[in-house]
Structure formats: structure tokens, C-alpha cells
């Protein structure tokens, strides 16, 4: 169904190839899972396999790609290919254009030419399958990251293609959501659909996978039966996350530090529009030097809550106080001196031409003294000094995540908040990011992370806050939690 023969590719204006002499075959009804460190070429492999590189990208191309036995160059355009193949990208927002969830799905079904009655039946089935029924009237931009991923998958399913290419479809999903996608994919595979999936959650997806492919530096470093490939210790470091020992690290200075109250949340509620209730009567205190993990299913209110800490959202009820300042009347710029936020997708933060200039922006905006020393210190902290003159989007996903942390760190906030800081990272890179965050805690910062990883919450955080349906249902200290 999909075949790549000796494919090499280099993006325009880059010297290093993204793919080098890569050959891969995905047969009808098979599921091939591709994993590897960020920057290994996994997304480029998806673009090549979907014919997008051949029809939409410049750059240097070698080798051949065939879909359904036909060279991708012989398809008229991407619309022609789309009749056989659907692709879900790792950034779901890039694929959502309509005003409601229902309209996104109706558009896909109408493109297939179904009659009205059949469209209604298929719409109902797909919504139930992807658990979007209760969200049908919501605007896509108001959905959580995980809900957006489910919607993009639903749109792809509505197109009814025999081949699916999925670039990290569960990266923003909680455990329940991941299991739901797994069940959907198992059903599609049983129907004879062909699936090429890029994922880091091999252990969760094991029962679905026929062939495991591990990439590194644009090449396939291992490929074969999953149980055979996973025995390689080098593969295990990439595929199996290990955060053991991070929480136990301490810096014994012999000093007694009295915690300072930094954030006080009293009875806050938040409503989007007139009827979307995201938070209900939240009470919370956060002190200096804490390492907090906020966990809960997609749509439970985690991201909505943390956006109140730096003024991106204003409470519709209750109060938020940050270092004695009322967050509802304090400017975002002023709150940024106390609370820094790293978004779930770090790429949304970048616009400068070099890594160093990216970090410099916040420093200059806030007028922080000792500019050059502060920037150098931030880059050293996140281990990116070597990349200071590079274009940010040339970095690997893990490096871009660390750059986003450096941008916030350079503004010297007391509190650093990160929304899913390990999304899209392999096990080794995820550990590197969590080690950086632990070092920041030991240096005196308060660290707050939103995470779907039970392992991170258990092995890295000192305190775990669990949310459900817009409420805090538990707030406990580790160890022992989530074991």
C-alpha cells in the first residue's frame, strides 16, 4: 500500500538531509509504528509517505514513493492522493478551519458525496466512536489539545480512506484518551485499513503494531518484529521513559528556607462564552520551591486553571492573587515577571531568527539588567549554548522545548508553568527536560507542570493535583501517589 525505495530528502536551504537512503514498506492491513528521537526524520517520513514532499515541497529529492502501487508523482495532486490516503499531523490546529466540531465533520462527509440520510448516520457513528457527541456545537479553538486531536482523527475517519498516516495522534491525550484511540485503530485495522503511525507510546500501542521502526538522523536504525527490536538497549532508552531518581535529588545547603506564599486562588470559576463551564469554585495555594504536577483527563480544566496565574484568562468568579497582586487588574506584562508560561506547543512562541534573539526578546521587553549575562545563563541552564546562533525551527523538538524554557527562565519569574512539557519527546529527551526542571526547582524556582504521564507525576513532582470536570478532586504530596 505504501512503499519507499531509497528515499533521501533535504529541505531547502539546509545542508543536512532529513532522510537518507530510506526504504520502508507498509502492506495492506498492516500497522507499522515509527519512533525515534525528535529530529530523527519521523514527520518528514510521513510527508514523504503521503506524497506531500513530491507535490508541495521544494528541496532535494531522491528515490521513489508509491501509494497503492502508483508512483506519487503520477497522481494529479494531493486531492487525488487524498481519495486513497488520510493523514493526521502532529499539530491538530493546522487542520481545523470551521466554526463548530459538527461542521468540520460534515465538510469531510459531504466531500465524499453521501446522501443526506447517510451523512447523518455516519456523523453520529463517528462522533460516538471518537467521543465528540457532547462537543458537536463547540468551536474547535475552544477545545483542549486532546479534544482537538480526537476531532482531527474523526475528520480523517470521515473521509473513509483505506490508508491512514498518523503523526503522534495521542501526544496530547491522557491515558483514557490514548486507550480510546487505540481501540479505534484496532477496529480500523480489523477492517483491513493500512496504518502508518508515528508514536512514542510504544508500550501502550504494542498490541496494534506489526512492525516497529526506530529512526535516528534520517535513517532506520532498527526495524522488525516489535518484541525483537525492543530488546536492543539503545532502543529501550528511546522507547521506554525512565524518570527514576529525579524527585529524590536535593541540594543540601545547610540553610533552612521558609516557604513564601506565591499564588493564592480563592473560589475561582471560569466560563467560556455563556454556557461552557470550565472551572468551578477552585481553592488553591502555591508556595516557593514547590514542584507540582497537575493531572487529569482532557477537558478537566488544567490549562484553563494555569492561564489564570499569568493573566491570560480572567476569572469569571473568585480571585487569583500572585505575589500579593490581584491578577484580574494586573497587566500580563507585569505578571510575566512573576509567572512564566511555556505553552504545550513551543513553536507557538518562536518568531526570531536565532536562538539567542529568541531568548533576548523577553529580557529586552521587561528591561532586565545584565542582558547578555542573563541570556547566556538561561541558555547554559537548558544546555543550548552550542545552538545560540541557529534558527529556532531547525532545532529538534526536544531542543525547541528547552528553548521555550530558556525564554521564560531568562525573565526570572519565581514560578515557571509548563503545559505538557514532554509532548512529542522520546524517553531520553523527556528525561533531559525533567532534569532541567528539577535543577530549576533546586535553584529556587517553583515549577508547575501539566502532564498526562503518571510516571512523571510519580517520579518528578513533590505534589500532585488531580482535576476532574473543572474541579480539584485531590491534592496530595508524593511519594506514594500514583504508584
Structure commentary:
The chain is of the alpha/beta class. The protein folds into two domains: 2-239, P-loop containing nucleotide triphosphate hydrolases (Rossmann fold), CATH 3.40.50.300; 261-477, Rossmann fold, CATH 3.40.50.300. It has 17 helices and 20 strands. A six-stranded mixed β-sheet has the order 6-7-8-3-9-10, sandwiched between helices. A hairpin with a 2-residue loop joins strand 19 (463-468) and strand 20 (471-477). Helix 13 runs parallel beside helix 15 and helix 14 runs antiparallel to helix 15 (397-409). The longest helix has 16 residues, at 175-190.
Number of domains: 2
Strand order of the largest sheet: 6-7-8-3-9-10
Distance between the termini: 43 Å
The main pleated sheet reads as: 6 strands, mixed
Give the CATH superfamily of the largest domain. Answer: P-loop containing nucleotide triphosphate hydrolases
Beta strands, count: 20
Count of separate DSSP helical elements: 17
Poorly predicted residue ranges: none
Radius of gyration: 23 Å
Amino acid at each position: 500500500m505504501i512503499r519507499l525505495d531509497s528515499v533521501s530528502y533535504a529541505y531547502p536551504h539546509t545542508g543536512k538531509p532529513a532522510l537518507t537512503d530510506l526504504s520502508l514498506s507498509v502492506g495492506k492491513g498492516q500497522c507499522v509504528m515509527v519512533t525515534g528521537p525528535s529530529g530523527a526524520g519521523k514527520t518528514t517520513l510521513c510527508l514523504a509517505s503521503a506524497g506531500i514532499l513530491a507535490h508541495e515541497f521544494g528541496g532535494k529529492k531522491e528515490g521513489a514513493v508509491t501509494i497503492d502501487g502508483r508512483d506519487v508523482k503520477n497522481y494529479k495532486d494531493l486531492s487525488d492522493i487524498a481519495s486513497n490516503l488520510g493523514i493526521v499531523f502532529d499539530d491538530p490546529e493546522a487542520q481545523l478551519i470551521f466554526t463548530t466540531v459538527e461542521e468540520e465533520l460534515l465538510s469531510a462527509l459531504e466531500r465524499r458525496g453521501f446522501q443526506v440520510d447517510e451523512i447523518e448516520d455516519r456523523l453520529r457513528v463517528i462522533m460516538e466512536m471518537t467521543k465528540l457527541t457532547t462537543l458537536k456545537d463547540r468551536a474547535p479553538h475552544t477545545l483542549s489539545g486532546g479534544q482537538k486531536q480526537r476531532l482531527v482523527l474523526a475528520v480523517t475517519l470521515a473521509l473513509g480512506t483505506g490508508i491512514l498516516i498518523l503523526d503522534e495522534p495521542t501526544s496530547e491525550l491522557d491515558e483514557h484518551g490514548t486507550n480510546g484511540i487505540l481501540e479505534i485503530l484496532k477496529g480500523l485495522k480489523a477492517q483491513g485499513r493500512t496504518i502508518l503511525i508515528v508514536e512514542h507510546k510504544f508500550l501502550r500501542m504494542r498490541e496494534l503494531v506489526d512492525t516497529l521502526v526506530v529512526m535516528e538522523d534520517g535513517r532506520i536504525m532498527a526495524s522488525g518484529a516489535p518484541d525483537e527490536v525492543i530488546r536492543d538497549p539503545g532502543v529501550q532508552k528511546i522507547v521506554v521513559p525512565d524518570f527514576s531518581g529525579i524527585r529524590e535529588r536535593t541540594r543540601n545547603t545547610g540553610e533552612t528556607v521558609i516557604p513564601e506564599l506565591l499564588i493564592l486562588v480563592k473560589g475561582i470559576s471560569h466560563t467560556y462564552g455563556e454556557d461552557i463551564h470550565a472551572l468551578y469554585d477552585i481553592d488553591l495555594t502555591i508556595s516557593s520551591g514547590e514542584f507540582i504536577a497537575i493531572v487529569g483527563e482532557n477537558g478537566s480544566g488544567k490549562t484553563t486553571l494555569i492561564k489564570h496565574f499569568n493573566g491570560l484568562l480572567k476569572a469569571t468568579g473568585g480571585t487569583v492573587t500572585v505575589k500579593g497582586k490581584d491578577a484580574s487588574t494586573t497587566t500580563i506584562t507585569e505578571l510575566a515577571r512573576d509567572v512564566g508560561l511555556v505553552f504545550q506547543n513551543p513553536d507557538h512562541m518562536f518568531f526570531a531568527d536565532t536562538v539567542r534573539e529568541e531568548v533576548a526578546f523577553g529580557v529586552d521587553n521587561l528591561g532586565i539588567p545584565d542582558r547578555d549575562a542573563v541570556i547566556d545563563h538561561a541558555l547554559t541552564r537548558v544546555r543550548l549554548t552550542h545552538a545560540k546562533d541557529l534558527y529556532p525551527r531547525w532545532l529538534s523538538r526536544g531542543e525547541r522545548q528547552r528553548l521555550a524554557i530558556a525564554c521564560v527562565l531568562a525573565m526570572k519569574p519565581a514560578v515557571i508553568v509548563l503545559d505538557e512539557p514532554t509532548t512529542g519527546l522520546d524517553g531520553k529527551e523527556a528525561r533531559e527536560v525533567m532534569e532541567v526542571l528539577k535543577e530549576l526547582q533546586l535553584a529556587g524556582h517553583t515549577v508547575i507542570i501539566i502532564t498526562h504521564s503518571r510516571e512523571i507525576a510519580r517520579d518528578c513532582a513533590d505534589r500532585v493535583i488531580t482535576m476532574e470536570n473543572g474541579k480539584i478532586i485531590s491534592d496530595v504530596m508524593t511519594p506514594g501517589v500514583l504508584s
